[in-house]
């Protein structure tokens, strides 16, 4: 394959994992990222990496030990409360979440994970400030990339790792994300151990959840002594603009949010919002249809959110993106190094690899999209908190018996 035959659009966890895996097997690729540099944007909160998905991809990429340096096993601890403050489950107060379980799906800050991946790829392979406008198919099953400031020509494979509003997806289908019914208001409290020890203790070492009919409050401990809180509501897609809350007025907006949608919640839950002095970012959650597919196209495919965008209510988005990257890389490498593969052209091998990859990716994506949809329905129901606590309690009991 030519040195510029593979283009990866997007330098998120999925795109970077793919690039790392390809480069380990001497498959050169170019990564195009719209951001100006690695520090331009806050990458978000914390996430867990599953052994058979994110951790497996990192192991194959030779990065598992680096991940363990920065991961937080204690971040797996869950706390679940009712809207009135009743504690249904709190692993911060229990001794039955032993070391083996704690290290199964450790948390890591998204920024730290991205830094690990960025440092692992060849610096010259990343092109920053490259905002893709469209992908053009040209004669011979090659593709030109039209950016805002330039055109890059002659790629045999274009991988869309460019997220929810993927430009690469447009080449494969007319499908676009639709509103999930849920909008989230994100807030941050920094330096909590010193500035607000009560808030720090209330959330604990991991995540705290309050699920209720049409609403939820979720708080997560991050590794930089920051707590991110998400006040979630089931409202129309236009709610951010039509609810009458002036989001530019930080304190007034927080109070209005609580008065209108969380008035009967406990004072501890309200302080998660009131004591978060930064953020106040409304995020409208979109998704692609469950089981979304497209006809295989020679030389173009998608991974991560570009392929199977879903809400965060099963916590699998980055894991799926990294599993996608591992599968796609494995298919491409096997067709580069296998004896039979060498009998065919690069274009034939790429098309064959895409077909095999997409088959497994569709199955995985549909499975977890369905799980995520069920999670959304449960989380925003009156019995959501009790059901989640009972499920965790049964899993803990099974571990103790084992």
How would you concisely characterize the structure shown here?
This is FAD-binding domain-containing protein. This protein is 38% helix and 23% strand.
Describe the protein's architecture and organization.
With 402 residues, the chain is an alpha/beta fold. It has 2 domains: 6-71 and 107-177 and 289-379, FAD/NAD(P)-binding domain (3-Layer(bba) Sandwich); 178-287, D-Amino Acid Oxidase, Chain A, domain 2 (2-Layer Sandwich), CATH 3.30.9.30. It has 14 helices and 17 strands. It has helices spanning 13-24, 54-60, 64-70, 99-102, 110-120, 192-195, 197-203, 239-242, 250-261, 267-274, 305-308, 317-337, 346-379, 384-401, and strands at 6-9, 30-32, 46-48, 78-81, 87-90, 107-109, 126-127, 132-138, 142-147, 151-155, 157-160, 178-189, 207-212, 215-221, 227-234, 278-287, 300-302. Residues 6-338 form the FAD-binding domain. One of its GO terms (biological process) is response to antibiotic. GO terms for molecular function: FAD binding; monooxygenase activity.
Break the fold down into its secondary structure elements and pairings:
Blueprint: E1 6-9, H1 13-24, E2 30-32, E3 46-48, H2 54-60, H3 64-70, E4 78-81, E5 87-90, H4 99-102, E6 107-109, H5 110-120, E7 126-127, E8 132-138, E9 142-147, E10 151-155, E11 157-160, E12 178-189, H6 192-195, H7 197-203, E13 207-212, E14 215-221, E15 227-234, H8 239-242, H9 250-261, H10 267-274, E16 278-287, E17 300-302, H11 305-308, H12 317-337, H13 346-379, H14 384-401
Parallel strand pairs: 1-2, 1-11, 2-7, 4-13, 11-17
Antiparallel strand pairs: 3-6, 4-5, 8-9, 9-10, 12-15, 12-16, 13-14, 14-15
GO molecular function, one term: monooxygenase activity
GO biological process, one term: response to antibiotic
Protein name: FAD-binding domain-containing protein
């Amino acid at each position: 394959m030519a040195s510029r035959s593979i283009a990866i659009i997007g330098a998120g966890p999925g795109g970077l994992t793919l690039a790392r895996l390809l480069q380990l097997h001497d498959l050169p690729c170019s990564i195009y990222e719209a951001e100006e540099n690695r520090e331009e944007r806050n990458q978000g909160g914390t996430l867990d990496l599953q052994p058979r998905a994110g951790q497996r991809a990192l192991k194959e990429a030779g990065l598992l030990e680096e991940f363990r340096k920065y991961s937080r096993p204690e971040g797996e601890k869950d706390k679940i409360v009712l809207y009135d403050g009743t504690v249904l489950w709190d692993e911060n107060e229990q001794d039955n979440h032993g070391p083996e379980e704690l290290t199964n799906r450790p948390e890591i800050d998204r920024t730290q994970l991205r830094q690990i991946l960025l440092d692992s790829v060849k610096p010259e392979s990343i092109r920053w400030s490259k905002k893709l406008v469209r992908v053009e198919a040209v004669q011979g099953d090659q593709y030109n990339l039209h950016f805002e400031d330039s055109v890059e020509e002659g790629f045999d494979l274009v991988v869309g790792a460019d997220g929810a509003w993927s430009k690469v997806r447009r080449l494969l289908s007319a499908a676009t994300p639709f509103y999930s019914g849920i909008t989230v208001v994100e807030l941050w409290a920094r330096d909590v151990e010193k500035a607000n020890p009560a808030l720090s203790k209330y959330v604990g070492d991991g995540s705290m959840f309050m699920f209720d009919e049409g609403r939820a409050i979720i708080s997560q401990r991050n590794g930089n002594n920051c707590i991110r809180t998400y006040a979630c509501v089931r409202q129309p897609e236009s709610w951010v603009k039509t609810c009458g809350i002036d989001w530019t007025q930080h304190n007034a907006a927080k109070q209005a949010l609580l008065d209108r949608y969380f008035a009967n919640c406990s004072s501890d839950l309200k302080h998660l919002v009131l004591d978060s002095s930064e953020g106040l970012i409304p995020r409208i959650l979109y998704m692609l249809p469950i089981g979304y597919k497209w006809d295989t196209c020679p030389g173009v495919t998608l991974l991560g959110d570009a392929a199977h965008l879903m809400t965060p209510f099963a916590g699998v988005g980055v894991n799926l993106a990294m599993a996608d990257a591992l599968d796609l890389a494995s298919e491409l490498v096997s067709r580069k190094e296998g004896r039979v593969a060498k009998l065919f052209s690069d274009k034939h091998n790429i098309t064959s690899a895409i077909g095999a990859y997409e088959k497994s990716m569709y199955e995985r994506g549909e499975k977890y999209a369905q799980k995520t949809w069920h999670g959304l329905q449960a989380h925003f129901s009156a019995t959501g908190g009790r059901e989640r606590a009972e499920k965790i309690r049964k899993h803990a009991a099974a571990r103790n018996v084992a």
